[in-house]
Design brief:
Elements: E1 8-12, H1 23-31, E2 36-39, H2 46-60, E3 64-68, H3 71-83, H4 89-92, E4 96-100, H5 108-117, E5 122-126, H6 133-136, H7 138-149
GO molecular function, one term: catalytic activity
InterPro entries: AB_hydrolase_1, AB_hydrolase_fold, Sec-Metab_Biosynth_Hydrolase
Protein name: AB hydrolase-1 domain-containing protein
Length: about 150
């Protein structure tokens, strides 16, 4: 796969973070030759934030693998819902999940349910990990991203 065919990983942060929260994940992606950009999610409204991310993606001019954390995942899903016809984006687009079993923001049982409902192609539940898995467990998050990138043409 050439660099122009390879997708760009677009990372969208949650409500109580900012784009630098993805730095450790991006270091690992870049270290293995994968292009990645962390979007500065404006955090104004789900629809407005999804429109902003859509515009960033349009400016890239390449396929993307979209990665969302917490509220960033809500933004991502609103974006994919707008791109699919007939069913929600979380059903139409392939999904991977990484979450901690010690997440105090979203219970692990709820995260498991969401992953199963979305038909996750790969779920990593990290023992002892908190809500901020991108910052605390960048290797696991990067591994899930590499797995997703490997399935782009499926």
């Amino acid at each position: 796969m050439t660099i122009t065919e390879q997708p760009v990983v677009v990372l969208v942060h949650g409500a109580f973070a900012e784009s630098a929260s993805w730095n450790r994940v991006i270091q690992r992606l870049h270290g293995r030759g994968l292009s990645a950009v962390a979007v500065a999610n404006p955090l104004r409204s789900v629809e407005g934030d999804a429109a902003y991310v859509r515009d960033v993606i349009a400016g890239l001019g390449r396929p993307v693998v979209l990665v969302g954390h917490s509220y960033g995942g809500v933004t991502e899903r609103a974006l994919t819902d707008g791109l699919t016809v007939g069913e929600p984006g979380w059903r139409a687009k392939p999904s991977w999940f990484v979450h901690g079993d010690r997440d105090l923001n979203i219970p692990a049982a709820a995260l498991r349910f969401m992953a199963e409902r979305a038909g996750s192609r790969g779920t990593r539940e990290l023992a002892g990990a908190s809500h901020a898995v991108g910052a605390s467990q960048p290797e696991a998050v990067a591994a899930a991203v590499f797995d997703a990138v490997g399935h782009v043409h499926d």
